[in-house]
Amino acid sequence: QVQLVESGGGLVQSGGSLRLSCTVSGTRFSINDMDWYRQTPGKQRELVAIITRGGDTNYADSVKGRFTVSRDNAKNTMYLQMNTLKPEDTAVYYCYARVGAGQIGYWGQGTQVTVSS
After folding, report:
1. Long-range interactions of 70-74: CB distance < 8 A, separation 24+
2. Closest CA to 79 of 27, 1, 29, 7
3. Quick check: 33 and 98 in contact, CB under 8 A?
4. 9 with 18: CB under 8 angstroms?
5. Cα distance between residue 117 and residue 70, in whole Å
6. What is the DSSP letter of 42?
């Protein structure tokens, strides 16, 4: 069965950096577009960044210029490099991947990012 496992979250001071990873396992099918989302208590999940299989990217305005999404298709892994972190970036970060010709979507379990002021 398909699994997405995120890692790299933690506690960092304002202005610091973190790198998140999301690895997909349990499938032989192509991993298509992949996304990073984040969510804080009481709020809807927010789209942070998208990366296509070919490497095209798009970002939420709130993270443009600070976050960079990338992927290694050979490793079925997506990354999110987060620089100049702000307290408002504090959230649980989730990855999402579309798998195979049917574009079936799968979520990771989330990783907590906390930015202290």
Report:
1. 71/34, 73/31
2. 7
3. yes
4. yes
5. 27
6. T
pLDDT in 10s for each residue of the chain, 117 residues? 999 999 999 999 999 999 999 999 999 999 999 999 999 999 999 999 999 999 999 999 999 999 999 999 999 999 999 999 999 999 999 999 999 999 999 999 999 999 999
Q: Characterize the bridge pairing of strands 3-7 and 18-25.
A: antiparallel
What whole-number distance in Å separates Cα of residue 103 and Cα of residue 101?
A: 5
Unique residue bearing structure tokens 């192509």? 30
Per DSSP, the three-state class of 108 is: coil
- Per-residue tokens: 4: 């997405």
d(CA 92, CA 47): 12
